[in-house]
């Protein structure tokens, strides 16, 4: 009985459909107005569907094509309808906020290439009258000879040479031209005279310290210097109590591993002597200067202004940092293998290192920072770097942002670079010259080259020097795809207040003296008064952003500036070493490359 009813129902379905079609056709024919009304509704719906735009789509990495984006969006919408997932709908709406990097840097151009306040400050390192009289007495003593053996790369050795001259003055000793490090990680056989003009060095400082090229024999007998090492950050009193008695007894003393062996804080006259050595007496040889000037001229031929970037993204640097840069298991294995070279290093916490601002930015992040600060794609970029980890693939995002990408290898022929290419310090000297002469210098770590150049650029007119505020930028880079470009760029500019090389960014006496030579920078108060200005990093940035109509959070800005002035960002060059064979933060690494050597340049 039930089977019969089911069969009857099956036969009734086609009949019912046929009956509905005939009924509809009859009434549509009988009532043409009804037909017209339904036709109008159908056309209206079609027009609305055609004219309504699809929601915007964001691809967080590479945009393939608009068609692919549309297909991806439709797939996701269909998936939502299928699953009825409200959470997915919420996620979709969040991801459609637009983060599109512009090619233009915005309307901040007039304030990008120079400091508005540079004309109110100048380098001043002349000795006081009392210091000159004391120096005259110092030069009379010829019975004590001080030798120093520097350590690390070019710029770390530069700090040692500078402090060596001051130590000789404190000890009332004759200084022998410093011996450069030829056996460390940098493996450079250059001696002092192959990098610096030794005659100029001796003559320029002749009023401060007597300097000779080599240790002379005494009474027909060669002097063998007594070798010793002084503690890190040794004060003048420390030298007088630990070194002077030995010097009086032995007559010749060689201080080994001489880097950061003099206190950061000295009286103003000794600090000014440091500046005379670093900024005037240490001049590169004519051969290096000529090649460096050629590189600068070739950059100037390409563009009126250019940025120099010390990228510092070499495999060894990244391995030592203990940071993670998104390369997956391959990166962890490769950098982990290099890191094991330093047996004394503890296991790292990459997330913690990045949160604390101890990781270098990736090339892409550096490019985004520069674009947010106002530098467009037409800007020419000189990159000072060794072998970049990941090669061209890693550099590709930076080159996409700044296609006018240059290095000493692209500006000069192999033949021109041949006299220098076998000497790492001489190659570093070429990069140093271009970075020093650039309109804007940006660093990517806080090593010795960054510090020396930052101080030098302050001394010679406060040329813009960008130091990434990595601690603040880290969070911003992580969340950038949830922001529009305008929001992201505004936050970058806010975080960088106090990190742009402007006057008064760092309180006098704070930070490394080579980075902030406050005792050697004088203010032209009269010129400043005539201009009617009270200049601080904050109001300079406000002035520069008027065109961009920035709305800066004042409280956060003051925190950033204060953080820069108080926090000493203690990298490995600042650590105190002891000779006990233990390698932890602040102690030595016997038998292997010392920590500060790695961060040297």
From TrEMBL:
UniProt GO MF annotations: glycosyltransferase activity
Keywords on record: Carbohydrate metabolism, Fucose metabolism, Glycosyltransferase, Membrane, Transferase, Transmembrane, Transmembrane helix
A biological process from GO: fucose metabolic process
Transmembrane segments: 34-54
Keyword Phosphoprotein among UniProt keywords: no
Disordered, as annotated region: 539-569
KW Transmembrane helix (keyword) present: yes
Biased segments, Basic and acidic residues type: 542-564
InterPro entries assigned to the protein according to its UniProt record, in alphabetical order: FucosylTrfase_pln, GDP-Fuc_O-FucTrfase
Pfam families from the UniProt entry: O-FucT
Family: Belongs to the glycosyltransferase GT106 family.
Name the record gives this protein: O-fucosyltransferase family protein
